[in-house]
Amino acid sequence: MFSFKPDRSQYPEPGPDGKLEIDLETGKYLKLWHGPNHPGITGNMSVELTVCGDEVVDGKTHVGYLHRGFEKLMERRTFIQVFPIVCRVCVPEPDFNEYCYAAAVEELADIDVPEMANWIRTLILEMGRFNSYMMAMGGISGALGLGVVGQWMTYTRDLMLDRFEELTGARIYHMFILPGGVRAHLPEGFEARMEEVLQTAEKYLADAEKLMFHSSVFKTRTKGVGYIDPALFERYGVTGPNARAGGVAKDVRKDSPYLVYDQLEFTVHTETESDIYARTLVRYKDLQETIQLIRQILRKMPKTGEVMSNLPNVLHWKIPRGETYIKGESSRGEYGYYLVTDGTGYPRRINVRGPSYTHAMALLEHLIPGTNISDVAALMVSLHTYPPEIER
Amino acid sequence: MRELLYRLKDRYHLGTPTFQRDDLTFVTVKRDELRAILTELRDVEGFTHLTFLTAVDWIEEGLFQLTYMINNREANQSLGLRVMLTREDEPGATTGDTIHDLWPTAATYQRELNEMFGINFPGSPRVDEEFILEGWTDLPPYRRDFDTLAYSQQTYRERPGRGRSDPKAHMQETLYPDYPKPREAAHAHKEEAK
Amino acid sequence: MKDVDDKFRKDTEKQVPLREELKPRKVTTPDGQEIDIDPLRDYFCDAKPKVHPKAYSKIVEDFYNWARSNSLWILGFGTGCGAIEMRPLMTPRFDAYRYGIQWRPTPRQANLLVISGYLSVKTLKRAIRAYEQMPSPKYVMGLGSCTINGGMYWDSYNTIKRLDDYLPVDMYVAGCMPRPEALLHGFMELKRVIREGKGEGANTYAENFDQYKVNQKAVIKDWDMPDYNW
Amino acid sequence: MSLRDVLSPFTAWKHVIDTPVTIQDPFNREAADRYRGFHQNDMDKCIGCGSCEEICQNDAIDMVPVEGQNAGPGDSGLRPMIDYGRCCWCALCVDVCMTGSLTMSNEYTWVDSDPDAFRFIPGVDGKSWDLEPKGYQREDTRRLTGTTRAPMGEMEPEARIGNFDEIVDGFTREQAVIEADRCVECGLCVATCPAHMDIPDYISKVRDGDYEGGLQILYETNPFSQACGRICTHKCETTCAAMHEGDAIAIRWLKRDITDNVPRERYFDLIQKPDVPETGQKIAVIGAGPAGLTTAYDLARKGHKVVVFEALDKPGGMMRYGIPEYRLPYDVLDHEISVIESMGVEIRCNMRVGHEISMQQLEKAYDAVVLSIGLHQGRSTRVPGSEKAEAAIDLLRRITAGEEVPVPEQVAVIGGGNVAMDIARSMARLQKVKYDKVGVTITALEELDRFLADAEEIKEAQEEGCVIYPARGPQEITLEGENVTGLRTWKVKAIFDDEGRFAPKYDEADEMVHPAQMVVEAIGQMSDISLLGAELTEKLEWNRGRIMIDADGQTSEAWLWAAGDVTSGPDVIHAVADGHRVARSVGKMLATKREKLQ
Questions:
Q1: Which of A52, A159, B70, D437 is deepest in the core (most CB within 10 A)?
Q2: Domain ranges of chain B
Q3: Nearest CB to C87: which of A38, A154, A346?
Q4: Which of D144, D149, D181, D201 is the best mutation test for A, with the most CBs of A within 10 A?
Q5: pTM, rounded to two decimals
Q6: D197 contact residues in B (CB cutoff 8 A)
């Protein structure tokens, strides 16, 4: 095997506070901007790399390219007006925002949600998880040069978008989970069409498994790369599949079940290696689990029932003073909304706790030093971060 | 959760807790005891996960509220610790105590709070670096006294040609233009009274 | 919706200081020489863009336009949410490649900049640089409400409201976000415009260069690059 | 590294023989049935209430005047214009739409090189998707604003029939909040209200619990808010945006809720006379009814000296002597008038102009005279025997005044208006007290659904035991000597002839005799103009038996105005509106006069 070991003797020593003093003008180092316009970046963000040869000595995450000031905009919108904009916080998996926001408002305003609506919400969230995992699988394979898997995953994801479209009326931003319930029932024949999509997905996933987890290229480039010490998980706020890949069997769906997860059966998959390979494998298994969950939900859910409870007149809806935090298990980890109300018709403060916030900032910056430039993209994608939820 | 708070109550000054849900409690703590409480909760009580750290601007009361949401994963309990800081108008004049050594990830939150609320955390790594905004010279935007629409109107151009009519006013104009507008009549009274 | 605070006045006094590494200074090179550098002048080429002249003969120009219209090479820079609908276009289901449309990783190889939705000020700066680095003739397409009149971020402090104030836009696609099919429609319409010789965005930019710069600098407060960089 | 790991990626080659998944014609691909595409608006259903504009968080909707859509009752004439440079297709506008006129098609393609093109008025600017039936529709009945009226507590028929106690309880705080919460504040009702009361504003005060602020809003436009909160004919509720997909807001009861919830003594603090200089000018108002007192209230607040001359021994006019106590208790009315008096209005009762004082004296002593004498003379059917019939208005006045009225066991009432119901129900109460049973028959020319009386009045009359015979024309009041024995009626075939003139046709074969010892005529009233005197009557210009007035209520005499029922009709709120109008006109004249003197 060909292997290259860089000469580390000329690297700078970190100072006592852990900071690197890098003098660019020595000519030993090169600043390399990985993004925002770069094929190896997820979304619109950038990592400022300092490299020596092809090894990265330091990396700083820069975000803010997608900052729209959601948390500020929400403060000047009424409670119903916040509903259309929350989903924009995270583009690839918008439904979690809708659910968390709706649940937070329902808790503070004391609104009951019909049973049927809870089932449909769960279905939507699992469909969103399916989409998100598909993007992650496509992304990681793309970052490692396995373009064909990316093509399959995007195609399968698109089939799921068609199901989203017929159920919710939109492809990407569904705006379907209103505070108080959901907008509509399942359309006629939805289950059968969903089953077709799931079968297609399973077919492609079986192939993807061969191309990824049984491929020597993939294994060589991912095994042992991007290792996160499980001891760091708590210090860096690592949740979701990234933590499960290091043996932490934690999943909000299981630990504190919300919606109807307590009536569903599913396994929380873990791995122990905590490297890129393990993280991808956990996602792959979770995706299979999600497919089974969607089937299970469609089988178990009631066939009729109200989907929406009566709201007070939303044009002047006031919610008493209070604060709450609603969390759920998104495809990337713990996703949550912290809502503070002050008795007026507007939220006092909404804080979105996106898992990417911790993963892409402090954790990524911690992991990057010492990696190879060509692995940075794979490392980032394997953490499965979506920039819009970092900066909101 | 109640037992835990009883235990803490002996040694620390705690406000009245809010039991929001079975697994979520909020309690106000004193600023100078925060660090000790957080350390104890993290190391002794199993609240090892810092879910988030954020601020709420209570401008009317002259306070910033810092909310430290910590989570005990084994017991599935979340505890929101509220710390009230005196709100200074000058960005950066309000300071909080950094906890980046307890949770390195807090450094990011503290950077954001410094940028978005003007709450400084001396000693936190890179706390003064630009985080989300670039070349920002105005008030920290998440403060309540920063009006985003006014700023937007004064900074960016909108496409012209928009204009709206209020149904009530429009009907008055078209159907009974001579009738005095009730609000104006009232103001006229008040002004006459002055 | 809360009313606007009439009393709020934007801070127009404060200036953003120039970043340390962009200040002119003396530097010792690895081989011991001492040189003066002025990063803002040295690192960039500084010349105004020129209007791209038409071919002498109409037939030749028509041929050029036909050729241009059939090779729309898009810069793969996802500036906003609309970028997520690009992936279906790049992949077999919608397969934009069959229409001569493809995505390129660098501006040097692209002639179409797709602004996929809102632009934060921070991204606007990058988008301007990316646009200016693209070879002429080049086109800009705006996706969604945000590029037309601010969209749902109409009251945000950090996003621009009208893309055409800062970059010359040749085609808009309505939607939030526009579907891949609508995007394809937009590409086809852009092709038609180019074939008719009306895809003059780059020339508009060159002609009204000063005005564009005024607009751009009005919102990008830390303007730390030369006016034109390619 | 095993051999399998090297070889397995090559399994991807098997897809070479797959059918391509590419969509062959992506340009004509239809979106899903409930896709939220471009907007449609049904111009016939849209009422221009602006709820869509209100809920739009993108500020994408402007209500704009549209050619061909005129403002009218219950329609503002405005239509939503949507800016696709703002819209995010969340469909909240469709969800909130009060009439269901705004919908979304599943069309989604709109490309243009002109950024200003993306703005249109759905339903007005023709678009290719206007008739597309597919697209987003809200699934259920509206959930974003309430559709059902809060219940109003009232006395059971058995409990209320034996007395003159007020029937309606008024809202509880919870009911009032539920009801006020349903209002979308479009303001369509304001145009319909004759006095143009600021309905959405005071409803919002109910919602906020700020009753004192609400009362001040009420008194800006209506000094008879307490009365109107009980007995207003609430035309506003016929144009309420909420009525299209649910019940109209109970605007009247909400008004009452405000007046009930402010302690009576607080009225005098809240409604104070503005601090304006005295003008020294004097106005005489003849008749202390709603029109006259509103005029007096307005003028007094402008600093004029106003004296009201009332012929009867208590002020209130028809509100006191026409409307029975169970609908408008007298203490409410007394309090209402005391608020007006606190503005400095002097009310002189038992001063019948033409007896105690003449018009000529008034003309000389005052700068202006306002005639608001109402309609206190009952009209007669003039059928044989009608000279023995009682006039409803006369009976009501006597009941109010506490005079002894004959209460026979059976009464027949002719007429289908509110006055007919009032007298029928009053007589029923008296009968109940005297005989412990009700025997009232109501006959009217109209079919029941065409009755002029309010629907709830009719319903309550029936509940209380009054028997209604619709579409019956009175032919004769049968007599036995001096005593009335009954009312003979024929079935009405048609009330109006082909040209729309009043000419009832009867089916003579269908005859009924309603036994009654008293027949009451309640078919309309007229005013007693004898007080004017022959000379003035001669001088004034007349229009079909009514005093001719200009748009501001001024008669052909420069010093004389007429207001209220005497010139227009037919209820308190119209009288209030009339009073305001006359007060403005009088005020203008007085101001001109003052300027001339200076």
A1: B70
A2: 2-156, 165-194
A3: A154
A4: D144
A5: 0.89
A6: 182
What band does B191 get if pLDDT is binned at 50, 70 and 90?
A: very low
What's the confidence (pLDDT) of residue B181?
Answer: 65
Two tokens, residue D595 = 């300027």
pLDDT tens-digit series, residues D136-160: 888 766 678 878 888 888 888 888 8
Contacts of A28 (CB under 8 A, 6+ apart): A10, A52
Which pLDDT value is given to residue A15?
Answer: 61
Amino acid at C221: K
What A155-159 contacts at long range (C-beta under 8 Å, 24+ apart), as own/partner pairs, is: A155/A204, A155/C91, A155/C92, A155/C93, A155/D21, A156/A197, A156/A200, A156/A201, A156/A204, A157/A130, A157/A131, A158/C88, A158/C91, A158/C93, A158/C94, A159/A196, A159/A197, A159/A200, A159/A201
Q: Among B48, B63, B73, B103, which would you mutate to test the A interface (most chain A Cβ atoms within 10 Å of its Cβ)?
A: B73
Cα distance between residue C230 and residue C224, in whole Å: 15
Identify which of A36, A75, A77 has the shortest CB distance to residue C123: A36
CATH class given for the domain over B2-156: alpha beta
Q: How far is A140 from chain C (nearest CA, A)?
A: 14
Q: Are D9 and A211 a contacting pair at CB < 8 A?
A: yes
B97 min Cα distance to partner chain A (Å): 18
In this model, does residue D298 exceed pLDDT 80? yes
- Cα B19 to Cα B15: distance, rounded to the nearest angstrom: 12
What would the mean pLDDT of D3-19 be, rounded to a whole number?
A: 86
Q: How far is A75 from chain C (nearest CA, A)?
A: 9
Task: Specify whether the CB–CB gap between B191 and D211 falls below 8 A.
Answer: no
Low-confidence ranges of chain A (pLDDT < 50): 1-4
Tokens representing C221? 């407060």
What does the pLDDT average to over D316-323? 86
| Cross-chain Cβ contact D110/C181 below 8 Å | no
**pLDDT at residue C223 in the model:** 81
Question: To which CATH superfamily is domain A70-391 assigned?
Answer: Cytochrome-c3 Hydrogenase, chain B (1.10.645.10)
CA-to-CA dists, residue D32 to A168, A197, A237, D106, angstroms: 9, 16, 41, 7
Domains in chain D, CATH or no CATH each: 28-120 (3.30.70.3270), 162-270 (1.10.1060.10), 282-376+536-597 (3.50.50.60), 378-525 (3.50.50.60)
Residue B153, SS3? helix
DSSP letter for A172, please: S
**Binary contact (D78, B159; C-beta < 8 A):** no
Tell me what pLDDT residue B91 has: 84
What is the C-alpha separation between D250 and D248, in angstroms, rounded?
A: 6
Share of chain D above pLDDT 90, in %: 2
Strands D411-414 and D440-443: parallel
Give domain limits for chain A: 8-62, 70-391
Q: Is B131 on the interface with A (CB under 8 A)?
A: yes
List the Cα angle A85/A87/A91 in 5-degree steps.
120
The 10s digit of each residue's pLDDT in A36-81 is 877 767 778 888 888 887 888 888 888 888 888 888 899 999 999 9
Q: Which 3 state secondary structure label does DSSP give D394?
A: helix
Of D528, D514, D310, D345, residue with least CA distance to D413: D514
pLDDT digits (tens, 9 = 90+) for A283-306: 999 999 999 999 999 999 898 888
Question: pLDDT at residue D537 above 50?
Answer: yes
Average pLDDT, integer, range D224-235: 87
Residue D198: closest CA among B168, A155, C146, A189: B168
Where does C58-219 sit in CATH, by number? 3.40.50.12280
Of D375, D305, D398, nearest to D347 by C-alpha is D305
